[in-house]
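Input (structure):
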């Protein structure tokens, strides 16, 4: 299905778990009318009346607060409850609840006609409706399907067509690596979808429908692309061991009342420069390509800061932003190394 639709992102999703629980506790403990709730949390016209009508179904014990990939490289917390979320997409999202899953995120189409298709991402938790495609919606494809409590067979299933999976395994069987498992096939797909030649060759088709992934032309090609896809997957899931060093020091001093406050982010420099969060503070040695890099129609290095305008960055925020720059730089480098035969 497509990702979760909240109808009230700034109420049902927060950067910190305690910020989210505070909002929900406030809702449950107060006696708001729709206009008061709308004004306090800057909500749209329909959501306040809808959720106030659901209050009888809500209690603190029934609320789950779980991670969600809100935008590329921007994970947050969500209150996962069908009386809080406009569309919880539980048929799909329930498979992500136990934290032992990964999912491909991609848009079926895009109204963005100015850029090459790039609406591809990965998550190991929930995703929001526009996580990987900003102009329409992105779809969420979990790798594993988990049984319900009432199912007789309690084994998890791989979410792949058996015949297609067998054909890929046959084409990829290798004397050294053997036959690929489902994660290796996922990584091959992820690598293909990040191949620059693939994106250029099928650019027009990729704007109007889901991607078609070619079968591997040889075992060597499969395992080479899988290796690059695995590296990208682990980077995009922000695994510390893969990110490594982040040589983008945070420098500068500001007046005490403006210290570490995001004002108007901008990039200064040529190929390598500085990302300023205000007039005097920012991140050094940043590649321009990372500042301008697109995922899902977003520029994560810019959007992450813009979404925090007026906020003071914590030490964790600063380290996270350094990770974003490294991830985007490495993504660009790896994508340029993915080669495949498209004849």
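Output (sequence):
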């Amino acid at each position: 299905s497509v990702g979760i639709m909240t109808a009230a992102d700034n109420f049902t999703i927060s950067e910190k778990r305690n910020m989210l629980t505070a909002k929900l506790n406030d809702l449950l403990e107060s006696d708001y009318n729709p206009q008061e709730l709308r004004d306090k949390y800057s909500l749209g016209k329909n959501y306040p009346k809808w959720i106030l009508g659901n209050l009888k179904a809500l209690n603190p014990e029934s609320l789950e607060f779980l991670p969600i990939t809100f935008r590329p490289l921007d994970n947050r917390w969500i209150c996962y409850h069908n009386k809080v979320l406009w569309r919880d997409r539980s048929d799909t999202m329930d498979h992500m609840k136990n934290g032992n899953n990964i999912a491909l995120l991609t848009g079926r189409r895009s109204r963005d006609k100015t850029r090459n298709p790039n609406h591809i991402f990965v998550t190991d938790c929930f995703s929001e409706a526009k996580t990987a495609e900003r102009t329409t919606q992105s779809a969420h494809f979990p790798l594993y399907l988990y049984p319900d409590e009432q199912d007789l067979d309690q084994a998890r299933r791989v979410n792949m067509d058996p015949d297609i999976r067998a054909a890929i395994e046959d084409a990829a069987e290798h004397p050294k690596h053997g036959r690929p498992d489902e994660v290796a096939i996922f990584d091959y797909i992820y690598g293909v979808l990040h191949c620059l030649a693939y994106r250029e060759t099928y650019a027009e088709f990729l704007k109007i429908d889901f991607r078609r992934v070619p079968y591997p032309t040889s075992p060597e090609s499969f395992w080479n692309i899988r290796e690059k896809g695995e590296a990208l997957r682990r980077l995009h899931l922000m695994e510390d061991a893969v990110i490594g060093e982040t040589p983008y020091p945070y420098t500068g001093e500001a007046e005490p009342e403006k210290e570490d406050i995001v004002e108007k982010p901008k990039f200064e420099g040529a190929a390598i420069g500085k990302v300023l969060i205000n007039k005097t503070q920012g991140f050094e040695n940043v590649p321009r390509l990372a500042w301008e890099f697109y995922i899902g129609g977003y520029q994560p290095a810019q959007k992450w800061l813009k979404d925090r305008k007026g906020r003071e960055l914590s030490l964790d925020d600063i380290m996270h932003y350094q990770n974003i720059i490294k991830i985007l730089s490495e993504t660009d480098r790896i994508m340029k190394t993915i080669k495949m035969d498209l004849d």
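Notes: The chain has 14 helices and 13 strands. The CA atoms of residues 162 and 168 lie 10 Å apart.
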